[in-house]
Write a structure and sequence with these properties.
alpha/beta, 8-stranded parallel β-barrel
């Protein structure tokens, strides 16, 4: 996962009024979900079988670690990775049964399962040549179909996050942030014979497959918040047809801030830039109010609830850096103490989780997540 760099708040406010072009008129678009579901986070929470409160989730976390601390979560997120040999359908038998394993683990926690589909990076992060590789794309679409068949078999509501990072790479490779300018193999897939062979067709086929096979699956796309792409990412998402999904996936950072602050940076946090640790007072840049305003812009444009995802679990500190498993970060601290701000922006919930194995987890955070989540559930923020 890549850095999400905030743009200045003044620019973000200007973008709120920007529109975006629709998809090609010659390309069929999947049937939108009901407007009441699109516009009201509380309705989506109810459809998931959960209370109408800001939802809290954990990802990439073992069930036993959650149970050991007696932590309550509403959402339980796991990745689905790979295409071909060693891909997620092979992790259990029969093929695709991993979906049932995650579903059962979520049920054990009293949570709704969430799957982060991360197949496009199977042959290298940002490798868009796979889009026109017949062998890769045939296997890719077979996995997508299997995912939603398995979700239907599970028989309960599920969330699916479609391909983090990929849409940023596709937007960067496109002409004028138009997904129809990036070629992809789509209509050889028997589920989507009438869709365009473009990245826009990829997005519409993902939606169509979900709607066809798994009516209880609720899906979302993660737009780019990179400073150079964000001004056009609203329009890019509209052209993808992301407004026909069920939620928008918002992000902050895929590692603890302290991991990037360390000098020299470890190999798993090697990235150019500064400003990893955000200002909780929302005075200096970057800060949390900027990120929340960006989310509000997507909410008002696409009319979809927001789900913050893979939010780092580090603990606040006045000292930059840290060590493996103990890197500093303040995103849990801020979000769990500003839940009303998230709700006012259109949030459905926040899913916390380490984006890499050396990051802070609920086992190494000194009980921070346990304490703050317990306090939150005692007086949760109500969803509209």
């Amino acid at each position: 996962m890549k850095l999400l760099r905030l743009i200045p708040l003044s620019t973000a406010l200007l973008i709120a009024a920007c529109g975006g072009g629709g998809g090609s008129s010659s390309t069929p678009t999947p049937t939108p979900t009901p407007p009441t579901l699109q516009q009201k986070p509380g309705v989506l929470a109810t459809n998931l079988g959960l209370s109408k409160r800001l939802l809290i989730g954990l990802g990439t976390t073992d069930v036993i670690d959650i149970q050991t601390q007696n932590i309550h979560v509403d959402l339980y997120d796991q990745y689905l990775t790979g295409v071909g040999s060693g891909a997620w359908p092979t992790w259990n038998s029969p093929s695709g049964a991993y979906v049932q394993v995650v579903g059962q683990n979520a049920s054990t926690l009293g949570a709704v399962p969430m799957f982060t589909l991360y197949q496009m990076a199977a042959n290298g992060d940002g490798n868009l040549s796979v889009l026109t590789d017949p062998t890769f794309m045939s296997a890719y679409w077979n996995n997508v179909r299997l995912l939603f068949q398995q979700i239907k078999l599970y028989g309960k509501p599920v969330l699916v996050n479609f391909e983090p990072d990929f849409w940023e790479y596709a937007q960067r490779a496109s002409t004028n942030s138009d997904p129809s300018t990036v070629a992809a193999i789509v209509n050889s897939n028997t589920d989507c014979p009438n869709l365009a062979n473009t990245v826009g067709g990829v997005a519409q086929c993902l939606l169509l497959t979900a709607r066809t096979y798994a009516p209880k699956a609720y899906v979302g796309f993660p737009p780019s918040l990179a400073s150079d792409l964000y001004p056009a990412s609203l329009g890019f998402m509209q052209k993808l047809g992301a407004g026909n999904a069920d939620f928008v996936v918002m992000q902050t950072l895929d590692r603890d801030a302290g991991c990037f602050e360390t000098v020299p940076q470890p190999s798993y946090c090697s990235r150019i830039g500064t400003g990893w640790y955000w200002d909780e007072a929302n005075v200096s840049t970057p800060n949390f109010a900027q990120n929340i305003t960006q989310g509000k812009n997507f909410n008002s444009t696409l009319q979809l609830p927001l789900l913050w995802w893979q939010t780092p679990l580090g603990v606040p500190s006045t000292t930059a850096g840290g060590s493996p498993g103990l890197w500093r970060d303040n995103r849990v601290h801020y979000f769990m103490n500003h839940t009303a701000d998230l709700v006012n922006a259109g949030a459905l919930g926040v899913v916390f989780g380490a984006g890499e194995v050396h990051q802070t987890t609920i086992k190494t955070d000194g009980g921070q997540f346990k304490k703050l989540s317990t306090t939150y559930y005692a007086a949760p923020a109500t969803l509209p």
